[in-house]
Specification:
Elements: H1 15-31, E1 37-42, H2 50-65, E2 69-74, H3 76-79, H4 89-103, E3 112-116, H5 121-125, H6 127-131, H7 136-141, H8 143-152, H9 159-162, H10 164-173, E4 179-182, H11 187-204, E5 215-218, H12 247-255, H13 273-286, H14 290-297, H15 301-328, H16 331-359
Parallel strand pairs: 1-2, 2-3, 4-5
The chain binds tryptophan.
Residues 39-43, 73, 75, 78, 168, 171-172, 180 line the site of tryptophan (TRP).
Length: 364
C-alpha cells in the first residue's frame, strides 16, 4: 500500500461563485423539491429569538412546505467545544425542538426530521475517516476556527473546537444533503464540506461516488441587528426578543431599543441602521414595505415606530406563541417527535456508513 498524499490545498471559494450556485440551486428546488435534501441546525444553547426566525427559521419552514426532505440537527456535541456547562443540554434540546415546531417545522409532515446529533452514532462515526481528508493548515485557515484561536489565545483551544468544521461536514454529509441554508459567514464550512465530499469520492469511490457535493443556499433575509444597536441580534449580548417572550416583555424590550435623535422616520439602512432595522422588522410582520411604514410614521418619531412594531410583531407571533405554550404542556409529543427524527436519521446514517465502509474496504 502506498502512503497517502497530503490533501491538496483547499481554496475557500469566491463569494461570487457561491452566489451563482445558490441562485441556480434555489431555482432547481422550486422545480424539483423532492430531489433535494436540506440539512440545517443550531446548537442547543438557549431560546431562539426573532433574529433566528426572520433570518433562517421561516426559510426552513418554506423549504419544508415545498416538500424538501428537511433534516434539522440539534448540535448538542458541538456545545461542548466551547462550554463547560452541560447539565442543561437535554433541557435545551427539548426547548429548541419546541421553538422549531412552534415556528412551523412540522414533525408530522413526513419530511421534517429533528434530532440531536449525539443520538446518531452512525453520523458521528463519519468523523474518523473525514479527519484524514483535511490538513491542519486548512483548519487553521477556516475563518471561524481562526477567530476562536485568536479568542482563546491558543491556550484553551481544544481539538474538538479545532475540528468542529469536520464534525459539521459529518452532519451535512451523513444524510447526503444537497442544500444547506446559510448566511454568508457559514460559507467556508460549506466549502470545506464540499472538499471532503470530493476527496472522499476521488480517493475511495472514484467509480461510484458516495457523496453529492452539497451547496450553500444563501438567504436574502437581511441580518437582524441587535436592539442595542449591536452588529447582530444574539442571546449572549442580551439584545434580542426571544420567541417565547410575552407580549409585555416584547413591548418592554422594543421600548429600550437604540435609535437616533432624528424625529422624522426615514428608511436609510446605511445612514440610519438602527431605525432601518426596526422598519425591517415592522415590514416582516405587517407586510407593508419599510419605506411605506416610514412614511406612515413620518414625524411620529421612534416612539411611534416602536408602538407600530410592538403591535405588529406581537400579532405576528401570537399563533406561534400559542403553539409554543401548547407544546410546553405536551412534552411527550415533543419527545416522540425527537424520537421519530432520531429513528429516521439513524436509518439514513446506517445506510451511508455502510457505503462508506465498503468504499474504504473495511472488514465486513
Ligand atoms: N454550527 C451551528 C450553530 O452554531 C450548528 C450546526 C451544526 C450546523 N452542524 C451544522 C449548521 C451543519 C448547519 C449545518 O448553530
Amino acid at each position: 500500500m502506498t502512503e497517502q498524499e497530503a490533501p491538496e490545498n483547499l481554496s475557500y471559494d469566491t463569494f461570487a461563485a457561491s452566489v451563482q450556485r445558490s441562485l441556480a440551486l434555489e431555482e432547481d428546488i422550486q422545480k424539483n423539491p423532492r430531489r433535494h435534501r436540506v440539512l440545517t441546525g443550531d446548537r442547543p444553547t438557549g431560546d431562539l429569538h426573532i433574529g433566528h426566525l426572520f433570518g433562517s427559521l421561516l426559510n426552513r419552514v418554506r423549504l419544508a412546505k415545498l416538500g424538501v426532505d428537511s433534516f434539522i440537527v440539534i448540535a448538542d456535541y458541538q456545545v461542548l467545544t466551547d462550554r463547560d456547562v452541560f447539565d442543561q443540554i437535554a433541557e435545551c434540546t427539548v426547548n429548541l425542538a419546541i421553538d422549531y415546531i412552534a415556528s412551523g417545522l412540522d414533525p408530522d409532515s413526513g419530511n421534517v426530521f429533528i434530532f440531536p446529533h449525539s443520538a446518531v452514532p452512525e453520523l458521528n462515526q463519519l468523523l474518523l475517516p473525514f479527519l484524514n481528508l483535511v490538513s491542519l493548515a486548512e483548519l487553521e485557515r477556516n475563518p471561524t476556527v481562526k477567530e476562536e484561536i485568536e479568542a482563546a489565545k491558543t491556550a484553551r483551544m481544544n481539538a474538538g473546537m479545532f475540528t468542529y468544521p469536520v464534525h459539521q461536514a459529518a452532519d451535512i454529509l451523513f444524510c447526503k444533503s444537497t442544500a444547506i441554508p446559510v448566511g454568508k459567514d457559514q460559507l467556508p464550512h460549506i466549502e470545506l464540506t464540499r472538499t471532503i465530499a470530493r476527496r472522499f469520492n476521488t480517493r475511495y469511490a472514484p467509480n461510484n461516488p458516495v457523496f453529492p457535493e452539497p451547496q450553500g443556499l444563501l438567504s436574502n433575509a437581511p441580518t437582524i441587528l441587535g436592539l442595542d444597536g449591536g452588529k447582530k441580534m444574539s442571546k449572549s449580548r442580551n439584545n434580542s426578543i426571544p420567541l417565547k417572550a410575552t407580549e409585555d416583555e416584547t413591548a418592554k424590550i422594543i421600548k429600550t431599543a437604540t435609535t437616533d435623535s432624528e424625529r422624522l422616520i426615514t428608511y436609510e439602512p446605511q445612514r440610519r441602521p438602527q431605525v432601518a432595522n426596526l422598519l425591517d422588522l415592522a415590514s416582516f410582520t405587517s407586510g407593508a414595505t419599510p419605506e411605506k411604514i416610514a412614511e406612515t410614521i413620518g414625524n411620529g418619531g421612534s416612539g411611534k415606530l416602536k408602538e407600530y412594531l410592538t403591535e405588529h410583531l406581537n400579532a405576528f407571533l401570537r399563533p406561534l406563541r400559542a403553539k409554543r405554550a401548547d407544546l410546553e404542556k405536551d412534552l411527550p409529543y415533543v419527545r416522540k417527535s425527537l424520537d421519530k427524527g432520531i429513528e429516521k436519521a439513524r436509518a439514513v446514517g446506517e445506510q451511508t456508513l455502510k457505503e462508506v465502509r465498503e468504499a474504504m474496504n473495511m472488514y465486513r
